[in-house]
Design brief:
The protein is α/β, with parallel strands linked by helices. It contains eleven helices and eleven strands. Strand 1 (43-50), helix 2 (57-68) and strand 2 (72-81) form a beta-alpha-beta unit. Helix 2 (57-68) packs parallel to helix 3.
């Protein structure tokens, strides 16, 4: 009896330990009822990009996590964004492009994937959009608040001292002069060229063709397809089915939003839930953006 008891106890401890390990391995994943088998079957990673893009850190971490996860067969990006900051859009685009070089990386566009949202999508393996999706808007915008006339009315003047003629270019306390307008125009043109070149590279399109579509105009999904900016008209479900068929995965394959390599990060959660526009609303529009103002 003692021997049987010891064997039973050893098996119980082994089973409990295995359950704990499996629980840790699959924690945070949105998967099928057979999630405990995830170590023996492939999954599809899902990354959602919603709203105005103010930061890239958390999204790049998610994309890289799925890229480096051998258990992830492909990545599905769901984009519903009018764009956002230049640098964040570029960093996410590069992460998408790097992922696409390693495994199928598919984009499904929601209501809008314009400007920086389209920039990011262009680095993917294949782009799906609905016929009524608004996309494109390959352009750059820069805005400055102006307080000088208001200050004049209330009798307030601001004196600014600088070392360097362009150090206070764009100051809200006065109008732009000719040199400043040329200065900012050069910045906008260079940033615009970067956008066009990256779309050209990502979509494998000739630079001049992309340039002809890059006056900042918005296209419907139907128009984008005709112009080569997307690959397929289809819904999110169509994109999912395409991923399964392309990768030869079974229908019960799990689509998960957190990779095993990803760990909870307070700052990531903070920035995702608290956009900078909510922290600093007065200064939200200062700067240069890949964003479609019409769609914010």
């Amino acid at each position: 009896m003692k021997t049987k008891t010891k064997i039973f106890l050893a098996l119980f401890i082994l089973f409990a330990a295995l359950s704990i390990v499996i629980g840790i391995a699959t924690a945070g994943s949105e998967s099928s009822d057979f999630a405990f088998l995830s170590g023996f079957s492939k999954q599809v990673g899902v990354v959602k990009i919603d709203g105005v893009i103010y930061e890239s850190r958390s999204l790049v971490k998610k994309i890289n996590g799925f890229r480096d996860d051998d258990n992830t067969a492909a990545l599905l990006l769901r984009i519903d964004s009018p764009g956002g900051g230049v640098a964040p859009s570029q960093e996410i685009y590069q992460a998408v492009k790097n992922c696409a070089a390693k495994k199928p990386t598919i984009v499904s566009m929601g209501s809008v994937a314009a400007s920086g949202g389209y920039y990011i999508a262009s680095g993917a393996t294949r782009i799906f959009a609905n016929g009524g999706t608004l996309t494109g808007s390959i352009g750059v915008i820069m805005e400055f608040p102006r307080y000088n006339k208001l200050l004049e009315k209330i009798g307030v003047s601001i004196e600014v001292l600088t070392a360097g003629n362009l150090k206070d270019a764009g100051s809200p306390f006065r109008e732009l002069d000719k040199n400043e307008r040329q200065y900012f125009d050069d910045i906008l043109k260079d940033t615009h060229k970067q956008f066009i070149k990256d779309v050209s590279d990502g979509r494998n399109m000739e630079y001049e063709i992309v340039k002809s579509l890059a006056e900042g105009q918005v296209f419907t999904g139907n128009q984008a397809l005709l112009n080569g900016l997307i690959d397929t008209l289809g819904t999110l479900e169509d994109a999912k089915n395409y991923v399964l068929q392309t990768c030869g995965l079974p229908k019960n394959t799990a689509f998960v939003e957190k990779s095993k390599k990803e760990r909870y990060d307070f700052m990531d959660d903070f920035f995702l839930k608290t956009p900078i526009k909510n922290l600093f609303p007065v200064f939200r529009k200062s700067g240069i953006y890949y964003v479609c103002e019409l769609l914010i």
